[in-house]
């Protein structure tokens, strides 16, 4: 019996003597063991991915450049001609801007304005677009801490103003950082009532990850889809909406201006891109002292970590750009209709306009007085670099 038992046990380890049932049992057992090992590993990896977050260690920043108001415009090129986003606007050079008083310099600030003088009876009129300004800084940057003193933000029906960082000649390959932007702001029923902070890139940059911020993830207009895919390539999931964050109504337009404006700060580094917006009475003392230290500031309004986006690969060689667009790709009839702005294209009235004649272009062409609040007022811009 002992020999027989030993023989049976030995035969079990000799796979050459296994039958089909034995093989089946072994396979099932192997699958079960593999599942026990692999499933917890996959769950752990998924949990680790969801919890991953970069280490925004303290950086020591030193002032590298100041855009002072007395020579502010010397630091910029004026983009001229038609709007690349199909707006109903003509961007003019420095001479035209001076003639139409679109870039006045005040005691401690500068203004960037939309024309309010050309009406339907003017020669020439504004049927092909209203005069405005688009500034692009001569200097380009790769990372840094950018501090913008803003006293007034443009608002009103048909306006599409923006303060942003972009390489004008390499979009979207070198990325786009929208610092302050709004569409139809302060319109009676505007769906976007606060500041929109948005990134635009080419493929493989997403923000459906852990983030620490006070702003709300934006949604793609009319769809309810969260705007977390920064990719603007054809066929991307959010139709070039970028990955956006929206602030409360006090962060843009009439409410922002009534409070005296504020200071916007962008920190652009390998770990991510963050943006703070401080009211006049809440500016950190270290900013006023010229020694900004984001590591001790409150939570930012917007946070774009590098968890699923190679910040260094997607963002480089950026100019500071400030402009005020009118109508264009961001204000189709669906957005205009939801805003509560006038709809002059009814009855026998034949709309006028440039690229696409619609309610927005007609409004811009025939109502110069509607743009008295469509201006930026800037104090100094400061650029810091870490050592």
TrEMBL record:
Keywords tagged on the record: Membrane, Transmembrane, Transmembrane helix
UniProt GO BP: glucan catabolic process
Domain spans labelled GH16: 54-323
Signal peptide extent: none
InterPro entries per UniProt: Beta-glucanase-like, ConA-like_dom_sf, Glycosyl_Hydrlase_16
Transmembrane segments: 20-43
GO molecular function (one): hydrolase activity, hydrolyzing O-glycosyl compounds
Record protein name field: Beta-glucanase
Protein species of origin: Lasiosphaeria hispida
Organism placement in taxonomy: Eukaryota, Fungi, Dikarya, Ascomycota, Pezizomycotina
């Amino acid at each position: 019996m002992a020999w027989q038992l030993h023989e049976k046990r030995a035969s079990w380890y000799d796979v050459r003597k296994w039958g089909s049932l034995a093989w089946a049992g072994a396979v099932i057992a192997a699958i079960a063991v593999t599942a026990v090992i692999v499933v917890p590993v996959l769950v752990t990896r998924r949990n680790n991915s969801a919890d991953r977050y970069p280490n925004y260690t303290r950086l020591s920043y030193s002032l590298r450049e100041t855009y002072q108001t007395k020579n502010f415009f010397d630091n910029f090129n004026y983009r001229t001609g038609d709007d690349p986003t199909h707006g109903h606007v003509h961007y003019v050079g420095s001479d035209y801007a001076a003639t139409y008083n679109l870039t006045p310099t005040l005691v401690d600030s500068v203004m960037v304005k939309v024309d309010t003088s050309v009406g339907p009876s003017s020669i020439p009129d504004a049927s092909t677009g209203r005069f405005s300004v688009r500034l692009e800084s001569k200097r380009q940057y790769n990372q840094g801490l950018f501090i913008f003193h803003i006293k007034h933000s443009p608002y009103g029906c048909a306006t599409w103003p923006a303060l942003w960082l972009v390489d004008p000649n390499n979009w979207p390959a070198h990325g786009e950082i929208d610092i302050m932007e709004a569409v139809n702001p302060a319109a009676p029923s505007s769906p976007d009532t606060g500041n929109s902070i948005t990134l635009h890139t080419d493929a493989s940059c997403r923000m459906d990850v852990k983030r620490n911020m006070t702003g709300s993830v934006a949604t793609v207009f009319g769809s309810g889809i969260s705007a977390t895919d920064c990719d603007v390539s054809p066929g991307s999931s959010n139709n070039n909406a970028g990955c956006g964050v929206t602030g409360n109504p006090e962060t843009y337009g009439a409410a922002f201006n009534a409070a005296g404006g504020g200071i916007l700060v962008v920190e652009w580094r390998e770990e991510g891109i963050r943006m703070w917006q401080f009211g006049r009475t809440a500016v950190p003392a270290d900013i006023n002292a010229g020694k900004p230290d984001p590591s001790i500031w409150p939570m930012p309004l917007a946070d774009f970590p590098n968890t699923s986006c190679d910040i260094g690969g997607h963002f480089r060689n950026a100019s500071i750009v400030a402009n005020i667009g009118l109508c264009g790709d961001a204000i189709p009839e669906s957005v205009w209709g939801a805003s509560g702005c006038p709809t002059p294209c009814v009855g026998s009235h034949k709309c006028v306009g440039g690229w696409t004649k619609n309610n927005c272009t007609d409004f811009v062409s025939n109502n110069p007085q509607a743009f008295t609040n469509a201006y930026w007022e800037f104090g100094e811009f400061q650029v810091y670099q870490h050592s």
